[in-house]
Structures are given as C-alpha cells and as structure tokens.
Amino acid sequence: MEDIRFTRIREYFLLGLSNREILLALSEFDGIIISNRHLKRLMNRGGLFRRKNHDNIVDVALFVNNELERSGNLHGYRWFHQKLRNSGFMIDKETVRSLLLVLDPEGVAIRRRRRLRRRRYNGIGPNYVWHIDSYDKLKPFGICINGCIDGFSRYVLWVEAHTTSSDPRLIAGYFVTAVNSVGGCPRIVRGDLGTENCAVRDMQFFLRRNGLDRHAADRSFVYGKSTSNQRIEFWWGILRKECADFWIDLFSHLRDNEGLFDGGDLDKALIQFCFLNMIQVRYVISALVFAVEHTSHYSITITPWAIWKAIYDVPFTVNAQDYSNPVPVDELEVCHEECRFKGDIPCCREVFELCCILMQERNLEAPTSPRQGTELYKYLRETIRNAL
Predict the structure, then answer these.
(1) Taking the complete model, does pTM exceed 0.85, yes or no?
(2) What is the pLDDT of residues 57-112, one digit of tens each?
(3) Dmax of the chain from CA atoms?
C-alpha cells in the first residue's frame, strides 16, 4: 500500500501538480486521503523536492538537444520544462530557460515576439460542447489530422493522424471511441459544414433524440465556419507552433529544396509509410503537454495536462458540472457498426507490402526519428522509382 501510494504521489508530482492538487487527485482518483503535512513528509522521504536535488544538467541538456532536432525547436521554456517533468527530470524553469538560450538562441529570439490576444471563450461545464475539426496543413503531403476538444476544460478528446480526414465513417469512429471512453455523449457537438461530419451529426441526433433539454435531438449538433470554431482553432494554433511547423518545414524542404516530393500518390504513400506513426506519437505528446491558462491581461502560461484532465473529470472543483448524457450499450453498438476504424497499415496496402520487402532485404528497422524517417523515405523512393 505504501509503495502504491508513493508511486501515485510521484506521478502527480512529475506532472507538475501542486500539493493541494496532489491531495485532490489522490482523494478523487485513488481513494487515498492524507493530510498536507503527511504528504510533505512522504515527499521529503522520497526525495521529491521542487527547489533542490535536481537532475544532472548534462543529462537535461542532452535531452533538450535531442528534442531540438525534432519538433522541440518550436517549444518555449515553459513547454520544455513541462515536457522534462513529464519525462521524469527534476529541473527548474530558470535552468531550462538558460539552456535554451545556449542551445537554441535563434528560436528564443523568434518566440520573444508579441502576439495578438484572442477573444475569451465562455463554457459551462465538461461535455457541454465538443469541438470537432480537421487540420489540413499537412494534407498536401498525405497526412490528414482530425481532432476534438472539450470546450470547457480544454481536454483533448482525440487527435488522430491518418491518410484521410474526409471519410465520415472514419470521423464517426473517432467520435464513437470517445463516447465509449467518456461513458456518454456531449450535450452539443460543434463542427464545420464539411461532409466529413455528417455521420457524427446523425449519430449525435440519434443518441440525443430523447433528451429533454433545449439542445436535444436536431439541436444537439451545431454547424459553423471552421475559422469561428474558436476553441479547437486555438488548439490548432498551439499545435502548429509547438509541433506541426516542424513537419511542414521538413516535407517542404524535401519538395522545394531537394525535389524529392512531387505530390503524386507514390510520394504521399511513402511519406505516410515513413512518418505517419511518428507524427501520431508526437501529436499525442503535444496533447498531453497542452493546456493554457490566462494569468494576466497580456500573458499566458503552459500548465500541465493533468490539471485540465482533473477539471474534466472532477468539475465540481471549479464550480461546474458534467453535462455528458449516458448512452445505452445497444445504441452505442448500433453506431459502432456504422463506423470505420484506423488499421495498422499507414498507407495503401500495395506500397506498404513493397516497402516491407525492401526493408527486409536491407535489414532496415522502422524509423524512430525524423532523420531516420527521411533517410528511409529517400531510399525507398529512389529504389521504387528505379524499378518502375
């Protein structure tokens, strides 16, 4: 019991939660009730300190330098600090800021530019509105992103990278998976006018057909311009700055500087084969780190995903309530049968099988970094084109 309790305390501590938030999480999620004084004793005994016993700065610098070769070159020091904490490093923000000044001075200079303040969003509670949208900035390279965010808590319900974001049955699959995970559907779903949302709209109408509130049945899905879908557009902006710009620059370099991408089906399939799973992982990591808290008239700070997850799971802590609507199992199964779900093959089967054969012949392994993915892409592209 003691080991389990300390393990949970350490997990919450590394997520950046305060002592008060750790006590709340222990009580609500684990059924463990202890005093603040006892929590401090356990943390001292386990070496969990916020201002001392920091990790070796060389190890931290190596981690930061490795991340800078990926989408980490888009991160500010607050985002990097939270990513380090999530990865198990004990370090203070000032040290991270100083490291970035040395390792990435150009990026620091770029991030010092001010930006316009966006309008505020007013939400009522978790699962009152889910915002669905697709992100098309990588679509020219064959990578299509679809996401959904809870409007009140900013909890990212899903962010999926796939070969298409235009298939209504695929988007419906994301929706049904989220409904099953949450244990109910939202009161309202907000999406744009694209045909990819029609299956989600019909399922939302079906699941909310017997509702008694003013947003029941055909009022439970709201259409609007994608640019006006404020909450998820803000998330896309964060995602582009912290992750997507890296991939856009990488693929644009292959196309514009090296002439190794012509926009054809083969090149798109090879991009999907080499990078799709990698991009999915990086986007999920970004979703875990993401949360934004307005702390003053002019500034925002990055706060741990766990805090927004706690707001989503325990809304009464911020004087809100959960607006999810329970869904019977048989109705969810009906929706499930109308969906299509992502498979294990990241591109068309013919290209996938051919690439696997070529990799086996050269004893090549699946890439784990953008550099390895780029090298594999160039090799496969040259080999296949020479054989045509």
Answers:
(1) no
(2) 899 999 999 988 888 888 888 888 888 888 878 888 899 999 999 998 888 888 77
(3) 71
